[in-house]
Amino acid sequence: MSKPTPLLRHVVLFQFKAGTAPEQLKAIEDAFRALPTQIEAIHDFEWGTDVSVEGIAQGFTHCFLLTFKSAADRDLYLPHPAHRAFGELLRPYKERVLVLDYWAQS
Asked: How far apart are CA 43 and CA 24, in angstroms?
């Protein structure tokens, strides 16, 4: 049996500034969710908000997980105009962002 091709995961966590309105959060969520339709290099995508009962999220509330088939695909995504436009929308409301990339292993 052949070994599956490894996938590159790109995890993005957001903490928003105090006072960010629900409408602003929705616009940010909608804009990030639209990226897979705008950037062909994104292989898979999921997102959600923190529901942990542990209380150690350190203010991060939103998680977006993008999957790429290669580092080259991730490298196409990062400077893509749609990704940059999302960053401009996000900028006034973000308090902190944490990004972690890893090769998925099983």
From this structure: 27
SS3 assignment for 15-37: EECCCCCHHHHHHHHHHHHHHHH
Q: Tell me the percentage of the chain whose pLDDT exceeds 90.
A: 94
Helices 22-38, 81-90: crossing angle, 10 deg rounding: 170
DSSP 58: T
What is the three-class DSSP state of 43? coil
Alpha carbon 39 to chain centroid, angstroms: 13
Q: What is the pLDDT of residues 30-78, one digit of tens each?
A: 999 999 999 999 999 999 999 999 999 999 999 999 999 999 999 999 9
